[in-house]
Amino acid sequence: TNIILLGPPGAGKGTQARRLVEERGLVQLSTGDMLREAKDSGTEMGKIVADVMARGDLVTDEIVIGLIEEKLDGEKVGGFIFDGFPRTLAQADALGALLARKGETLDAVIEMRVDDAALVDRISGRFTCGACGEVYHDTTKPTKIEGACDECGSTDLKRRADDNAESLRQRLMEYYKKTSPLIGYYYHAGNLATVDGLAAIDDVAKSVAAVLDR
Ligand code: AP5
Ligand code: ZN
């Protein structure tokens, strides 16, 4: 099973992807996580992308397609969850070509629909465990013990550099200009499914499961 989670910043793509990894043994490919790793490890590419990401602009197609290609060329797995990729029509075409080359299919594109007002709330309350990557929210998904990750106990909880009002505005603009055309693209390809991303995390997970088990 290869699936794409499509949706604006804060729609809950990462949250649902992590659940699918646990529940279905799929492999999460988040280009955002890969780019943040490159930034943190201080590679040449990391230095190039850091400012672009902090502003909320999209990184070039060439860089992200290269990252995905590297992962797809690795060992064979049960399936991939593409989280935050593709984000442009060029990336969607490239993914189609890469999958075809490997004899793989794209089984579902799940659009997570959330309105802008809710996104601001989601993004401003988000924090992440630096050790295991678990995603939390100040009000909708707090840690059980304050200051420590439920999953691994780490106290390295952090907020993202681009989770501020100004960068979020730019991320949303980029989404509507460059990424939202993919909804029509995949609708016409016949594999688009839409779920209500405004529902509670467990209910969104149920809608996603219903799409995958249809
Ligand atoms: P990326 O890391 O992909 O960020 P994003 O798309 O902005 O998505 P987010 O990670 O912000 O949100 P999410 O949908 O995963 O939501 P989450 O589950 O965390 O990209 C960052 C940057 O990298 C881009 O701006 C760009 O510069 C670059 N980049 C990445 N990929 C690229 C590409 N392909 N091409 C070019 N550039 C690229 O949830 C958000 C919050 O809400 C959390 O606090 C969570 O706990 C909470 N929450 C989740 N679900 C619910 C729910 N149902 N109810 C209540 N709260 C919820
Ligand atoms: Zn953790």
UniProtKB/TrEMBL annotation:
GO terms for molecular function: AMP kinase activity. It catalyses: AMP + ATP = 2 ADP. Zn(2+) binds at residues 129, 132, 149, 152. Pathway: Purine metabolism; AMP biosynthesis via salvage pathway; AMP from ADP: step 1/1. It comes from the Bacteria. Its main location: cytoplasm. Residues 126-162 form the Adenylate kinase active site lid domain. Residues 30-59 are annotated as: NMP. It is an enzyme of class 2 (transferase). The keyword Zinc applies. Its EC number is 2.7.4.3. InterPro entries: Adenyl_kin_sub (IPR006259), Adenylat/UMP-CMP_kin (IPR000850), Adenylat_kinase_CS (IPR033690), Adenylate_kinase_lid-dom (IPR007862), P-loop_NTPase (IPR027417). It is found in: Cytoplasm. AMP binds at residues 31, 36, 57-59, 84-87, 91, 160, 171. Keywords: ATP-binding, Cytoplasm, Kinase, Metal-binding, Nucleotide biosynthesis, Nucleotide-binding, Transferase, Zinc. ATP binds at residues 10-15, 126, 135-136, 199. Monomer. Consists of three domains, a large central CORE domain and two small peripheral domains, NMPbind and LID, which undergo movements during catalysis. The LID domain closes over the site of phosphoryl transfer upon ATP binding. Assembling and dissambling the active center during each catalytic cycle provides an effective means to prevent ATP hydrolysis. Some bacteria have evolved a zinc-coordinating structure that stabilizes the LID domain. Catalyzes the reversible transfer of the terminal phosphate group between ATP and AMP. Plays an important role in cellular energy homeostasis and in adenine nucleotide metabolism. Belongs to the adenylate kinase family. PANTHER family: NUCLEOTIDE KINASE (PTHR23359). This is Adenylate kinase. It comes from Albidovulum salinarum. The lineage of its organism: Bacteria, Pseudomonadati, Pseudomonadota, Alphaproteobacteria, Rhodobacterales.
